[in-house]
Model the fold of this input.
Amino acid sequence: MPAPSFTRASRPRPQRSSGALVVAVASLGVLAVSAFAVAGEISSYVAAGGTDAAFFDRLAQASPAPAISRSGAEAVLMRCESVVAGQYGARQTDAERMFALGHCWSFAAQTLEQMPSYSYGWYTLALFQLSLGDLESGLQSLSQSQRAGRNEQWVAERRVHLGELVLSELDPETRAGHDADLTMLAQSNRGVRSIAQRYIKNEEFRGRITAIVETLPEETQVRFVSRVRAAAREASMDTPPT
Done:
């Protein structure tokens, strides 16, 4: 039987696969989302960049756009901590500092809505709240940071410094979390270095941390004393003669 012949008009056209079309559309969607994510991530790092003066001026005007990742949020929060809540912010007018701290507070709160177990986020929120005089909210956020990051030593170092500033205001639960942070710091070289100067200069603190260390195994106590002495020597070598 001869093969059928078709004219150009009658020749059947191949049908496009609807599945291929769906894949193509989905791929475009993924590319669009990826581009948005990259743009958002870049925006966070741009917001965190620049000189201290430029960063502070931006924060005095408006809160940064919400970050889409923990690393992006951390970049902004660390600059808020070091610049706005640090020495640079302290040299600015009260009004400018309050506006900048308020915008850092808003950014931290937005970040925690997306990442509620973010210990450093809770710590920075506590810092901004306490810096603006909201003691009750600040203590609650500090307690949240303790619960969210019990084993995060770098955050514990910051929490201890903040907790020592408001020690008399800590409720029993937050005070227990504070002591737990001190217990962790007392067992590592880095942790001891972070509290060595306070141990040397503050007799009341020295008594408290000594009582905590005495609950630890004997070998840990010996290491603590050795580390404190070494940290004290390093600190004295770094201090220029008067």
